[in-house]
Amino acid sequence: MEPPKVQQPGEGGLNVTLTIRLLMHGKEVGSIIGKKGETVKKMREESGARINISEGNCPERIVTITGPTDAIFKAFAMIAYKFEEDIINSMSNSPATSKPPVTLRLVVPASQCGSLIGKGGSKIKEMRESTGAQVQVAGDMLPNSTERAVTISGAPEAIIQCVKQICVVMLESPPKGATIPYRPKPASTPVIFSGGQAYTIQGQYAIPHHDLTKLHQLAMQQTPFNPLGQTTPAFPGLDASNQASTHELTIPNDLIGCIIGRQGTKINEIRQMSGAQIKIANAMEGSSERQITITGTPANISLAQYLINARFRDVAAMWNDPSSMTTS
């Protein structure tokens, strides 16, 4: 379904550069990205807006749309109609007869939410009545931020008109003071090891995880720790104590990149899998090495160490077999 052309509200004046942030779940993000990134590429090209999607293994992602307001409205129209298309497709195999509304969640600085609500709720009531969309402003700020979620539901046409009005209010009432942006936290997926196989816990199910199994097997071959008896039979060599401690590693500068990964993705994965705090010291002038400090329980530290060691092995294997290289 092709979205209609979105007209600019008013005569001139509103076509200024603006940034709007959306909060989306994984499935919604997948719909926006499309196969091999084709959908988001098309949205960027046809709307003229910059559309960026936050990285990370998170249940929620931030989609940032930046550009002149007319480009932003076109991008929102394409997103709204894409979500409606997904809803229609999902209903083809469903007994449901009534079509649920399209829902988008904006992330707005809390200092601007008062202007969106208006005195006694007058502004938000006006938006609902004039556009036909349902608009809800969350009472609480998003975790570790000074932003709140603004949920818009309705038909795509109603959502687009509502976004236009919200943009006008945000331009007329800029944020006050510093804004601490909301950054979704990575999903904390429990990992268990049994019979030499790694499993991630998803809901009520244990899902085999082949990559973690490989890392576990490598670690068991070269673990630097002596076995500590039968206290942790599924994870030999790990101390069951919960007392936090610190361990330091020294890594050559030319290898630190493979541990950090692009935009920190690899080090974040190691932090998430191990549960350890990992800090990488800044490069010192004249030094060819960097110090990594790992803090956590002995089990956390051991897991972090063998994940780092396995990362080195994987990179070395790729260099030895160039045909297996992928972008990391």
Give a written overview of the molecule.
- The protein is an alpha+beta fold.
- Helices cover 40% and strands 23% of the residues.
- The protein contains ten helices and twelve strands.
- Strands 2-3-1-4-6-5 form a six-stranded antiparallel sheet. It has a three-stranded antiparallel sheet with strand order 7-8-9, covered by helices on one side.
- Helix 2 runs antiparallel to helix 3 and helix 5 runs antiparallel to helix 6.
- It is elongated.
- The N terminus and C terminus are likely disordered.
Short structural summary:
This protein has about 325 residues and is α+β, with helices and mostly antiparallel strands.
Number of separate helices: 10
Gyration radius (Cα, Å) is 25 Å
Spans where pLDDT lies below 50 across 5 or more residues: 1-13, 222-241, 319-328
SSE topology string: EHHEEHEHHEEHEEEHEHHEEH
Record field, number of beta strands: 12
- Quick one: overall form? elongated
Q: Roughly what fraction of the amino acids lie in strands?
A: 15-25%
Q: What fraction, in percent, of the residue positions are helical? A: 25-40%
Based on secondary structure, the structural category is alpha+beta
Please give the alpha-carbon distance between the first and last residues. 36 Å
Mean pLDDT: 77
Q: What attributes does this structure have?
A:
10 helices, alpha+beta, 328 residues, three-stranded antiparallel sheet
Task: Tell me the layout of helices and strands.
Elements: E1 17-25, H1 26-33, H2 38-47, E2 50-53, E3 60-68, H3 69-91, E4 102-109, H4 110-117, H5 122-131, E5 134-137, E6 147-154, H6 156-172, E7 191-194, E8 197-202, E9 205-208, H7 210-222, E10 245-252, H8 253-260, H9 265-274, E11 277-280, E12 289-296, H10 298-320
Antiparallel strand pairs: 1-3, 1-4, 2-3, 4-6, 5-6, 7-8, 8-9, 10-12, 11-12
Helix pairs in contact: 2-3, 3-6, 5-6, 7-10, 9-10
